[in-house]
Structure formats: C-alpha cells, structure tokens
Amino acid sequence: MGLLTSFSLSSSGLAVQQKRLDVAAENLANMNSTRTPEGGPYKEKEVVVSSMPLGFDEGLTTLLKKDVVQGAAITQIIQSNKPARVVYDPSHPDADPDGNVSYPNISGFEQMIDIQTASKAYEANVTVFNSAKTMMMRTLDLGGV
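RESULT FIELD:
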C-alpha cells in the first residue's frame, strides 16, 4: 500500500466521520421538534456506512485479481423507525384531541456518544493523514540530498 492510498483511506474516513457528526448534531437540534413539513414529529436520522474500492485503477486491479483497497463511504442516511415518544400536554399547540403530543424518540445520551466516537475517529484519521504526509515529505527530503 502506497502513501497515496493512505491519503485516500484517511480522507474517506474523514468524510464519513464529518457526516456522522453533522447527522448527530441535527438529531440533537431536533430532539423536541413536534412538527415537520412532512407531518408529525422529527424522525431520528442514522448514517449507513459501507466499504468501497479506492483508487483510479480499481477496475484494472479487479481484472488482474489483485487486492483492492477498501475505504469508507456513506451508503445512505435513513430515518429511524422508532415510535414517537408520547407526552401528555394538553396546552401544547401540537396536542391531539386527547392532549397527547408526539415527540421524536431521540436519546440525547446516545447522540452525545455518537458525537464522541465520530470525533475520536475523525482525530485518528487526521493522525493517519498527517503521518503519511510527514513520511512523504521526509522521502522528498532524502531525494534532494
């Protein structure tokens, strides 16, 4: 595996972790949103991540039956199918005739854990990227001697 592959791997990881952070922040911001343009309470979003081949020569590598380096990619962002959390509050403007209000079933604790893990994974990818950059710069310095 070359240094350029290391850059590709870490950058794909950075993109995935950034999206995970964005989605968790959106979920936290909408924890109490009882009304959306689609109707009903906000639905928690989840990021689906899978592997994907990296590099411009992936087709050639597959034809030659060589190992293809896999990076991370976001396959889709799905809405959770958790049922809404129902709270009795007849004074709320979105209360039903029985006085119940449907809130998103989002755990702030789980979202904060997602933010922490995505943040740590982001930092790890930055470290890999910087290490590869340092190795490349040292290699160039050696060539100039």
